[in-house]
Amino acid sequence: METNFILRFQYSETEFIKAYRELFTSNKKWIVDLLISVGLMAIALYLIFTDEVTILNTLALIIAILYFIILILKLYIIPLLVFRRTPKYRDTYTLAFTDEQIKFVTEGNQSDIRWDYYNTLKETGGFIFLYYGKDLFTIIPKRVFKDEKEISSFIAFTKKKISK
Where exactly are the transmembrane stretches of this chain (predicted)? Predict the structure, then answer.
């Protein structure tokens, strides 16, 4: 069983948060959510200041503010909490990618994962995400590769394995 890629890394808190932010902002839906939130807030404030204060105007403002707070939480607070509350993210990871499987080793765990476990690969500026569910993924920092050529080779290899 020939090993095609061996990757060894440990996340820092900053790097983990950056990965989540890159993933969140790579989906342009968040811009639409932000525009809806700000637009609804502007309309509600306009109605409150130019018209009488009504329950509907106040409710619209409260919903807009809550929507905006949720976006901020998803971008800044939740990634921090996920990292701090999940001890496995502080472990050192060793991933060995072969034609047959991925050997996944941390300080407290060792698994052989078949390729059909993963269903999608997504790339951002600094990370590669291997999805195994809707919001479940393995994060691979690009810094673990020696150069862009190795990153491209890894992505091509992985996409070929995932698409089978």
Answer: 30-49, 55-83
Whole-number Å distance between alpha carbons of 95 and 118: 14
Question: Based on the domain organization, do 38 and 72 belong to the same domain?
Answer: yes
| 94/98 Cα distance (integer angstroms) | 13
Which whole number is the average pLDDT over 28-46? 84
Contacts of 101 (CB under 8 A, 6+ apart): 112, 113, 114, 115
Q: Mind listing the pLDDT tens digit for each residue in 39-69?
A: 888 888 888 788 777 888 888 888 889 988 9
Taking 90 as the threshold, does the pLDDT of residue 143 lie above it?
A: yes
Lookup: tokens for 13: 């808190």
pLDDT at 139 over 80: yes
Query: In whole angstroms, what is the distance from residue 138 CA to residue 97 CA?
Result: 13
> What DSSP state is assigned to residue 104?
E
Amino acid in position 157: F
